[in-house]
Every structure is written in structure tokens, then in C-alpha cells.
Amino acid sequence: MFHTPIVPRKRPRPVEAGVPRREQVKFENVRLYLVERKMGHSRRSFLTQLARSKGFMVEDVLSDTVTHVVSEDSQASALWTWLKGCDLKNLPSMHVLDISWFTDSMREGRPVAVETRHLVQDTVPTFPEGATPTPVATVSQYACQRRTSTENYNKIFTDILQCGRSFEVEKILSDERYQTLKLFTSVFGVGPKTAEKWYRAGLRSFSDILTEPSIHLNRMQQTGFLHYKDISRAVSKAEARALGNIIDEAVHAITPDAVLALTGGFRRGKEFGHDVDFLVTTPELGREKSLLPDIIDRLKQDTESGPRVQREGILLYCDYQASTFDISKLPSLRFEAMDLFAKCFLILRLKGSKVEGGLNSAAEDHRGWRAVRVDLVSPPMDRYAYALLGWTGSRQFERDLRRFARFERQMRLDNHILYDKTKNEFLAATTEKDIFDHLGLEYIEPWQRNA
Ligand code: CTP
Ligand code: MN
Ligand code: MN
Asked: In the predicted model, is pLDDT for residue 192 greater than 60?
């Protein structure tokens, strides 16, 4: 078992605790603990020394003072079982991270913001009462014929990490181009093309970009840099719920019969996400056209008032794209990988007081708020089921659904429609289940779509 000491070692190891630590502590609020299991004793010692030399505090013993637990264990569930057995009060507020957070932090010489990709997530799928997952006899090549919970996802992901780990980490660390492009595209508004352009111009860091006079950032990129730390920090489930309440309030103030649905990763039961995705519409066809502009207007008016309080609106950034979807063109509609519905990409200012248990922000952050990315999409009601299915993801699940429709059923599926090529007709659907039925697939619940 994981937490039972294995075979006693023949000779005693050098005791690190006895070695005086002369390294200067640079980051008072960060206390690391490196999990020895899978990492091994000598690698753990090496990484401990490396971190301490860069001003990090590394604890030898796991206790409630630890803020960041770093593990190379490939089994998320085993790690969490062990952590939960350690009798820690602060476990819920600790970051449980894979080695990528550690290597990123060592490279940058400071504790980097925790992102979704760093997390070793403790997500056990929960099924609604009475519902049990139907076992699938053989593993299909299509994700839409598999039930993949967030737990499964972590296993697959970390297995990859384990196999390639020691070579990959070192190789990737040394690949400057890869690292620079990754850094640049991590900024909201910076795509691969821009990142490549900057790299070719010899720029390697954010300060290179921000101090280069010939570079003109567009408004999206300016916002991306301005809120970089917040946006690259994972959004928690509690934060997603708080944003749901805010959007819900705005939507229903405009149209009492509006329909608001959570989509994206949080609908799939993920504990953390890079943003929060919602779908919003109204039963009245055509009315959805003005819905997003109305919601945006309302969010704009939502400012903190009162004397001496800086009038900071909740809406920090908004990129609205009107619908280009025309149902009358359906028969001749080209098959669209791009979503044509009205949508907006927002950055909202979320106050800690609105979030149960508080914000997912750094201990040294005393602003009382954080910026969060929110996506709203607004299809007409008769497209609701297709939009919901498409926006729930995961991306891999969607890809496989389309591939399955095309090659196994001679049908075309996208976020708007399902077209039967054999019968030459568009298939109507009011629920996601209708679409699975049309495709002759067993219904897969949202939390089982984490392929
Ligand atoms: N999507 C889409 N069209 C877009 C953008 C997104 O159909 N223009 C779909 C994708 O299938 C994706 C889902 O919407 O699965 C949500 O997108 P995104 O927020 O990027 O991914 P999540 O799965 O929510 O992951 P995260 O938790 O990191 O946000
Ligand atoms: Mn999302
Ligand atoms: Mn999104």
C-alpha cells in the first residue's frame, strides 16, 4: 500500500534536516512538500536542493503549514487517498500539483500561478441517485462510446507523464522555442501566429514585449497582460457557481423566461477550469438576438457605487460576436467547424464576498477580487440541444462524436445541426438525448464526456 513504509533501507541516509540551510527564503507564503513516492529519494533530495537554492521553502515533513504538495505519482486517486489519510486540516486549501508546476517555477525562479494543467485533481464522479453507469463491454475507438469521468482523464494524462517523465521534463525545459511560444500564447488574445512573430523578432519574455516600442498590443492583448495572473489561475467550482448566480441575476432581470445553462468543463463535473462557459437563450425565437447585448449592457451598469469607492465595473473586458447563423440557409449550409451563434468572451471582476469559501487566489493577494474569463453563447431555442452538446465538450469527445456521425452513420454533426446524408434531411432535437438517439448511441452523461 501507498502509505505503509516499504522495505527498510540497509544503510541510513544522510539526514537533510541536520544540514544548516543558508539559502535565503524569497517566498514567505509558499511552503513546498515533495512527495517521495515515485519520485525516489535521490531525485527528491536533488529537487529539494534546487528549490531551496532558488529561495523556496521546502518542508521535509507534510504538515498543515504546507501550501503546495508536488508529486510525480501517476495515480491521482492513490495520491489523494494517501493525502486524505494524513490527517491534515488544511488539505482543502493546499495546492496538489504535478511536477510541471515545479519545473515551471524553477525555470521562472518564482512560484508560478497554479493553472488547471498543474493540478492533480481529486474528482470522483458522482452519479445522480438511482442512476448507475451502464458498463461498456469493449473499449471503442470513439470517445462518444466511452464513459470518461474526470478521474479517468487524470489517469490517462498522468500515465503519459510517468512514461516520458525524466527525459521529457529535461528536454522540454531546454527547448527555448517551445517554452517561449507556450509563454506567449498563455496570454489572453495572443495566438500562435503572434507568438511566433514575437519569437522571430528575438523577444523572449513579457518584459521584452512590454518594453519593445514597435509592438502595439490590441485591446484584447492589453487586457490579457493586465489580468495575466488572474486569468492563468484556475477557476474553482465555487467561483463558477458565484458567476452563475451573477449571470443568472442579469439574464432574468432582462427576460424572466430566459434559459441559462452551465456548459464546458464545469458541466462535466471538473473541479477547476480555465474559464466558465454558459449557454443562454429564450423560448421566443428571434428574441435571443438582442439577449447578449442586453446582458452586456446590464453588466456594464453593474458598478460599485458609494462615496470614495472607485467605480470599478464588473465587466473588465467584452468581445461580442453577433450571430452569423441563418436558419433559412440551412439546406445549403456549409458544414461548419466554426460556431456561428452569437457569443461573447468576457473577463469579469469577481468579488470574494460572492464566493462560498472565498476566492482561489494567492495568500498574499489582498485585493478581495479576481478577474475570471467567462464565455456566453446564445443560440436560438430550436438549436439549443445541439449548442448544449457542442459547448459541453470535451473537445476530444466532440471530435469523436462528429467522426462517429460521419463514418459510422453517414451523418454530419456540428454545434448547430445533425444532417442525415442518406435521407437528405436535418434531424430535429430538443434534448441532447434526442441527438444520441438519432446517432444510435447510448446516452452519455455530461460527467462521462471527459475524454
Ligand atoms: N467550443 C465550441 N466552439 C467554440 C469554443 C468552444 O464548440 N468557439 C466548445 C468546445 O467543444 C469545448 C467547450 O466548448 O469543449 C468548452 O470550451 P473551453 O472553455 O475552451 O473548454 P473546457 O472544456 O470548458 O475546459 P476548461 O475547463 O479549461 O475551460
Ligand atoms: Mn471552459
Ligand atoms: Mn470557454
From this structure: yes
